[in-house]
């Protein structure tokens, strides 16, 4: 069963100081959600997965609170060659692909979107290689897998990551983020067994506008969360 938990009924003025603060608040929300169903969660094993790079500072406090492994699933947007901001799908480093339900209205010619798919997958594989040697791989099979990002704008990379975890036989998949647009909630509820979002502000526009500090993270900074 899909469960949407909105812990703030916030307007467009919601602000987090930085990713660390948002992650700590999201960790408390996750623990609160678990406490509501103690019998269901008894003897359950958890694994927290971040979508790098920005998801790692959000995911680290959750993994710490649950005393469980922290790992990454790398997924990249597939975009139109003529518009790098328009996501027509997403692909993970291990090859799981999802397309936007509106792709037929946005899709370039076949050879162009095949090229866009390969470009996105190459990018995902490169980032996977950069991050994967920094720690042991977690095993989601039979576990509750929490997928975490610093915000969800289109849901494409999250959907691709969900598909990867299904292929790895996770028992449940929880989608967790500080912010997401309200009109994306039905899509997220279809994707995850539970959806934990701190705020669903409108208008949304972009994830970065809900943080006072939202720096671009380096690979080294991202890797440090996995090492610790």
Helices and strands in order:
Layout: E1 3-8, H1 19-35, H2 38-41, E2 46-50, H3 55-66, E3 70-72, E4 75-80, E5 83-92, E6 97-99, H4 103-106, H5 110-131, E7 144-148, H6 156-167, E8 172-179, H7 185-191, E9 194-199, H8 219-227
Written description of the protein model:
- It is a single chain.
- With 228 residues, this protein is of the alpha/beta class.
- It folds into two domains: 3-74 and 138-227, Rossmann fold; 77-129, no CATH class.
- The protein contains eight helices and nine strands.
- The chain has helices at residues 19-35, 38-41, 55-66, 103-106, 110-131, 156-167, 185-191, 219-227; strands at residues 3-8, 46-50, 70-72, 75-80, 83-92, 97-99, 144-148, 172-179, 194-199.
- Strand 2, helix 3 and strand 3 (70-72) form a beta-alpha-beta unit.
What oligomeric assembly is this protein in? single chain
Number of DSSP helical runs? 8
- In helices, the fraction of residues equals 25-40%
Largest pleated sheet: 6 strands, parallel
Summarize this structure briefly.
By secondary structure, this protein is of the alpha/beta class.
Identify the notable features of this structure and list them briefly:
alpha/beta, 228 residues, 3-stranded antiparallel β-sheet, Rossmann fold, globular, 2 domains, 9 strands, 8 helices, 6-stranded parallel β-sheet, 38% helix
């Amino acid at each position: 069963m899909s469960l949407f938990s909105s812990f703030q009924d916030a307007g467009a003025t919601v602000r987090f100081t930085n990713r660390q603060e948002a992650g700590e608040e999201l960790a408390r929300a996750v623990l609160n959600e678990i406490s509501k169903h103690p019998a269901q969660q008894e003897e359950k094993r958890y694994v927290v997965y971040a979508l790098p790079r920005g998801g790692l500072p959000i995911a680290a406090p959750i993994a710490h609170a649950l005393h469980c492994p922290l790992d990454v699933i790398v997924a990249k947007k597939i975009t139109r060659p003529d518009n790098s901001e328009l996501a027509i799908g997403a692909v993970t480093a291990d090859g799981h692909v999802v397309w936007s339900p509106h792709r037929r209205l946005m899709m370039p010619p076949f050879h162009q979107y095949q090229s866009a798919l390969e470009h996105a997958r190459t990018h995902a594989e490169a980032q996977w290689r950069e991050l994967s040697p920094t720690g042991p791989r977690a095993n989601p099979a039979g576990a509750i897998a929490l997928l975490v990002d610093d915000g969800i704008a289109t849901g494409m990379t999250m959907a691709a990551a969900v598909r990867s975890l299904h292929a790895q036989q996770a028992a449940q998949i929880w989608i967790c983020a500080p912010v997401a647009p309200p009109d994306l909630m039905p899509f997220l509820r279809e994707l995850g067994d539970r959806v934990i979002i701190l705020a669903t502000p409108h208008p949304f526009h972009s994830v970065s506008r809900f943080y006072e500090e939202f720096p671009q993270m380096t690979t080294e900074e991202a890797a440090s969360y996995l090492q610790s």
